[in-house]
Amino acid sequence: MINAGIIGGAGYTAGELLRILINHPDVDIAFVQSNSQAGKPIASVHTSLIGETFLHFTAQGDYGKADVLFLCMGHGKSAAFLEATPVPPEVRIIDLSTDFRAESPSHEFVYGLPELQRSRIREANRIANPGCFATAIQLALLPLARHGLLEDDVHIHAVTGATGAGQAPGATTHFSWRDNNLSVYKAFSHQHLAEIRQSLTQLQPGFAHQLNFLPLRGNFSRGIFATAYLYTDLGADKARDLYEAFYAGSPFVFLSPSNPDLKQVVNTNKGVLYLEKHGSRLLIISMIDNLLKGASGQAVQNMNLMFGLDEAAGLRLKPSQF
Fold it and tell me: What EC number(s) has UniProt assigned to this enzyme (predicted)?
C-alpha cells in the first residue's frame, strides 16, 4: 500500500483528494496536516466525508511514514514549506500550487500533465500538478501543436465555477454576488498562460502567436467550460483524426460526437472535447471539472503513474457534495 500524507488539508482540493484516496484500493492515508483545523475530525470540515473517515487533522505529520506528500496549500506556500521542512528525499511530492510549474534547472519538479508528460511522470519524484484553466486549454490545443498547426493567434474564452477561487470567502465568491452573475477577470494576463505556452512550445518550438485568453467567473460551483478557435486550413475530419490519435492512450480524454454540456464532466476526472469547423475557423470546446481533472483527480492520476499503478486506479468517482 502507498502511504499518503496531505499538507494543507482544509481546502476544497484537499477535500476532493481525501474523497478519492479514501476509496483508492492501493492507498492508506498516513496523516492530514492543517494548521487551522488541527485536532478536529476531518469530517467536521469536509462534511461529505461523514461516515467515510474517522481521521483527525494533525498539526504536524510524520513525513518519514509517507511514501507521497500532496501539497494542497496556497500559491507560494509550497516552496516555503519545502525550504523549511526536512522531508526525506525518498518521499515523492505532488504539488497542487503554481510554485513549480515553470520547469527550471533550479528544481526537480516535472510538469504533471499526463497527456503530455506520461513517460517523464513515471520516472519523477516530484510533480507540479497543472492549473485547472491550463489543463482544459492544453487539452484543446496540444494535438494541433504536435503537428505544428498552431499557425495563427488562438482566441480562448473559459468560464470557471466558484470553487476555482478556493474555500476562503471573497467579494467575488459569496452567493449573493456570484448567483445570476458573470464577469471577466485577468483578461489576457492570467497566470496559467505561462504553463500553457511552455507546453505548446515543447511540441511546436516555433510557436510565437498570441493566446488571447479571457477567463470568466461563472455562476455555478464547479467545472470549466472552455472554447478556443483559430484559423486553419485543416479540415474537420482530419482534425478529428489528429485528436483521436493524440488521445488514444489517455483513459480520461474523450471526443464528443455532439455539442456537449458542462454537466457531462462535473464530479469526474474526464476531459471532454468537441470540434467544429466554421469556414476557415476551427472551434474546440474543452470541458473539465476544475477540482478533479483540474486539481485533485489529476494529482491522483499522477500518483498512479509515479507508483506504476493503473493510471485510472481509484478515479471512478462517487458524486461529491457540490
Answer: 1.2.1.38
The DSSP output letter for 89 is T
Query: How many angstroms separate the CA atoms of 283 and 289, rounded?
Result: 20
Query: pLDDT per residue over 96-107, tens digit each?
Result: 999 999 999 999
Q: Taking the model in full, what pTM does it have? A: 0.94
Q: Quote the Cα angle for 255-17-318, to 5°.
A: 60
Other beta carbons within 10 Å of 157: 15
User: 3-state DSSP call for residue 194?
Assistant: helix
What letter represents residue 50's amino acid? I
- Contact yes or no for 114/301 (Cβ under 8 A): yes
CB-count burial class (<10 Å; 0-12, 13-18, 19+) for 223: buried
Q: Are 41 and 102 in contact (CB under 8 A)?
A: no
pLDDT in tens, 86-98: 999 999 999 999 9
Contact present, 190 and 211 (Cβ < 8 Å): no
CA angle 103, 108, 113 (to 5 degrees): 55
Q: What is the per-residue pLDDT across 207-261, written as a single tens digit (0 to 9) for each? A: 999 999 999 999 988 999 999 999 999 999 999 999 999 999 999 999 999 999 9
Q: Which domains does the chain have, with CATH numbers?
A: 2-129+295-306 (3.40.50.720), 132-288 (3.30.360.10)
Place of cell 519545502: 82
Place of cell 497542487: 96
* Alpha-helix runs per DSSP H in the chain: 12-22, 42-45, 77-84, 114-123, 132-146, 175-178, 193-203, 236-246, 296-306
Active site residues: 132
